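FAQ: What does a multi-protein file look like?

Like this. Sequence, then tokens, then the next protein.
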Amino acid sequence: MRSLSVIIICKNEEDRIRPCLESVKGFADEIIVVDSSSSDNTVNIVKEYTDKVWVTEDWPGYGPQKQRALDKASCEWVLSIDSDEWIDDEIKQEIRTVLSSDKLTNTSYRLPWGNLILGKQMKFGRSARAPRRLFQRDGAAFTKHLVHESIVLKGKIGRLENGYLMHNSIKSYEHWITKNRQYSWLTSQKYSAKGKRSYGIPLAVLRSIWTFFLIYIIRLGCLDGSRGLLVAMMFSQASFNKYAGLWYLEQEAKLNNEKK
């Protein structure tokens, strides 16, 4: 089996990080954790599982922080996992099979997501996605995006079919609303920095409607019941907020230019 580094970034995750660490204990050759100055017991919990822990005083954004963790990895392959995620036994076995293969043609793999809402796993809608998390270390890098970062790596991308990358991202409805707002605003800022245009509030409304239709109808979120409907509505709202936020930034820039 090719060697495997697991990289994790975290902050104030004492209530959720232990399942993440338990799932990779004894499975990875090394566990690397970069913490953003947690004020709770997160770092002490992490030290029960690995001595490769770094604490940063700043927060440069998700992409740059994950790159810091990747820079410290030393194994042939890397599994990037968030502190509110864990891998189940089925996907562990498939990762072992992939990394032991004599005919490995892919340089990275997508892992099926198993999103949990109120203790129940979602199977459709947004949960039908499979993020790219397993990849060769050589030549890989994270984008510098503050949020919704991605891996930059040449080569073919495969997909694991058995098991799940479990994801327990919602602590409460209040937490979900706050996270939704924060991610939307960070995305507005990211789009503004890249010079992307909003094309006005009416289009923000249309994007929101399309997001709901995509998640609830096309990706069959309706089959997840009331939870599926809630997820579709939350992402629809987030879609509107990020483009409305981009429009607002555009108007602010115009006003500032007129004052000069």
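And here is the next protein:
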Amino acid sequence: MKTNDIMARLEAKYPGESEYLQAVREVLQSVEETYNQHPEFEKAKIIERIVEPDRIFTFRITWADDNGEVHTNIGYRVQFNSAIGPYKGGLRFHPSVTPSMLKFLGFEQVFKNALTTLPMGGAKGGSDFDPSGRSDAEIMRFCQAYMQELINCIGPDQDIPAGDVGVGGREIGFLNGMYRKISRQHGTGVLTGKGLTWGGSLLRPEATGFGLLYFVENVLKKAGKDIKGCRVAISGFGNVAWGAAIKATELGAKVVTISGRKGMCEIPNGIDQEMIDYMLEMRSSNRHNVEDMAIRFPDKAKYYAGEKSWRVACDIALPCAFQNELSEEDAKTLVANGCWCCCEGSNMGCQPGAIHYFQSQGVLFGPGKASNAGGVATSGLEMVQNASHISWSKEEVDIKLKSIMRDIHEQCVKYGTQPDGSIDYVKGANIAGFMKVATAMIEQGLV
């Protein structure tokens, strides 16, 4: 297998699908040497099969706003690979959603889910609907219309969606309500991220951010470092950033930034509990304006319009907002200001140039498919609780999450340790996930 030959064919076949092609290239470059050591993979054409989704559903969504005006959006569900279990992956509501974006996210999800050790395949879905500024009633009507189509391709043992950008607990509630009404089935666990009164798991909203910091802890421990006293720059202020801020603060670090679409807030003395609690209000307001933090706490936070979190001096950078949010120039700024660790809380949060620069400078770098797997891992734990009709305590879930993130780190170390003793976490995560999925595909034949 030659990565460049395969990428040339995919680029000709899917011109313009930049996010998807970027994700595929990163994985293929990492696994090429390992793949070529397994002639059975080549014989079964594993690469040609694994880079193509099993199926893509596309559908129209029609809904009415509070003024009675009719709107039409496009909905998707990309079921990428189910070799190790039913499809599992989030739903994203954002105007930038395209098939390319969802193919990239679904492809990444395949390997991320494999790393969790739980039996889950990979999928992703969503719509170009923008929930910003919409009322709860409008969001409810959209979610209900979306579920009327999505229900045709999901099920508790087939495909289990969760939340993602633009889809939080409120949206999952509206989606689940319509699913239950149409299917007349209760307690199926067909969606994860549910409310605690109807099948949700404790710690799920915090899980991606908590898991991110547990992974960072393992990376730092392996490198002989400690997170206590470290300055942490976080982007975003949604669930991932919120969970990361909570856990980083608990572990003794100082969170010095959060950010939004239009700018960032610097918090010189570190975020405190009152500010962390206010992040939830900011998320539920639908304003998506991080300046609200500086307005609410003018003596603690300062807002910089048009700026990113990466302009502030820090030890650890945690991109927790969107794909490709951290550029090579941002990486150079971070390193110049003393940053020595970066782990992705968002999916593919760093551009390729940024990753290469970090690695060339000896910066500890954790890729999203490993470092942000805590969310889907806890979704998997929610599925187990639903199937068993039980509910674990917060402490039980947290212990399991810590264990899963430790196991993910160990897999990365196993496959990513280089001859000089350094660890390439990107290569380690990609090879570990790929080997599990590829082996499962071989053992199940040409399906």
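Q: Is there any per-entry metadata?
A: Some entries carry free-text notes. For the entry above: The longest helix spans residues 394-416.
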